[in-house]
């Protein structure tokens, strides 16, 4: 049986290659493609495309379509980071240990590179000839919800609004179910759509994804306190310095760790409802909660 480490070693180079090829192949100004590729090449955990592939692997399906959808979802994630780093948003100088896009290409090009990475994925999915029309429409609909006003963008608005006051725990959960969790849920459910999973299996995986999304954000909040700028590749301690509503701020650091463990266990419990072995998805959940960056 393939371990997560082996899986990542095998699959991440393929994800990278497909992602960069899809940008290189478009008819667009060279400077725009350079700015898009700069942030895509900046590295990262690539957990979103890995979730797509891991779900397909769970159902014993070939990964070829997963590389394309995984690349598409990573483009959406990367666009969000480019825009998050802009002076009008988080105003960060570094991302993944490299200068942020606007520090290299300027605010205008960075904004447009983000715009391009936000729109390209929908065309990529629409042009996937190996998929049925129903699969393509389903994926495009799910991604538009996850990435847009009902998902990530809506969550970002709630997050900005929350900077002016102290959020309740329920409000904080709502921010992160949308801002962080929506794209992770798409990654997991898209793998199920590509694999032809049943409605019941998709519902189980959405439950798993809900808890993974919250666990991911809680771990981020913990790392903002316990990690270093060098380890994280971005400014550590920024949430504390800005008095931002986070899980440790609301629950204490120990309380946040307890909540992280709760969501981790709930994610594993959801996987236990699947009819076949889910070791790889279990290992990905463990990776999310044990990571140090």
Overall, the morphology is: globular
CATH superfamily: Farnesyl Diphosphate Synthase
CATH class: Mainly Alpha
Biggest sheet, in brief? 2 strands, antiparallel
Q: In the CATH classification, which architecture applies?
A: Orthogonal Bundle
Distance from N terminus to C terminus (CA atoms, Å) equals 27 Å
Structural class: mainly alpha
Rg is 18 Å
Low-confidence stretches: none
Q: What percentage of the residues does DSSP assign to strands (E)?
A: under 5%
Provide the residue-averaged pLDDT. 93
Extended strand count: 2
How many domains? The number is 1
Distinct helical segment count: 15
User: Helix share of residues?
Assistant: over 70%
Strand order of the largest sheet: 1-2
Order of helices and strands: HHHHEEHHHHHHHHHHH
């Amino acid at each position: 049986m393939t371990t997560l480490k082996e899986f990542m070693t095998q699959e991440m180079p393929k994800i990278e290659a497909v992602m960069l090829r899809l940008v290189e192949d478009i008819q667009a100004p060279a400077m725009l493609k350079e700015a898009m590729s700069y942030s895509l090449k900046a590295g990262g955990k690539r957990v979103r495309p890995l979730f797509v592939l891991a779900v397909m692997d769970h159902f014993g399906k070939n990964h070829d379509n997963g590389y394309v959808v995984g690349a598409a979802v990573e483009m959406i994630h990367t666009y969000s980071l480019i825009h998050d780093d802009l002076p009008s948003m988080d105003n960060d100088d570094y991302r993944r240990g490299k200068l942020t896009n606007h520090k290299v290409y300027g605010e205008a090009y960075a904004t447009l590179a983000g715009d391009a990475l936000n729109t390209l994925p929908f065309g990529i999915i629409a042009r996937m000839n190996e998929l049925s029309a129903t699969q393509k429409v389903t994926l495009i609909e799910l991604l538009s919800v996850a990435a847009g006003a009902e998902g990530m963008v809506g969550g970002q608005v709630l997050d900005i609004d929350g900077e002016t006051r102290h959020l309740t725990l329920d409000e904080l959960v709502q921010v992160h179910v949308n801002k962080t969790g929506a794209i992770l849920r798409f990654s997991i459910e898209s793998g199920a759509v590509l694999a032809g999973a049943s409605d019941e299996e998709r519902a189980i995986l959405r439950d798993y994804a809900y808890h993974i999304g919250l666990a991911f954000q809680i771990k981020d909040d913990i790392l903002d306190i316990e990690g270093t700028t060098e380890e994280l590749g971005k400014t550590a301690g920024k949430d504390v310095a800005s008095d931002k509503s986070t899980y440790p701020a609301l629950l204490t650091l120990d309380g946040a760790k307890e909540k992280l463990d709760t969501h981790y266990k709930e994610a594993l419990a959801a996987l236990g409802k699947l009819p076949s072995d889910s070791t790889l998805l279990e290992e990905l959940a463990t990776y999310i909660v044990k990571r140090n960056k």
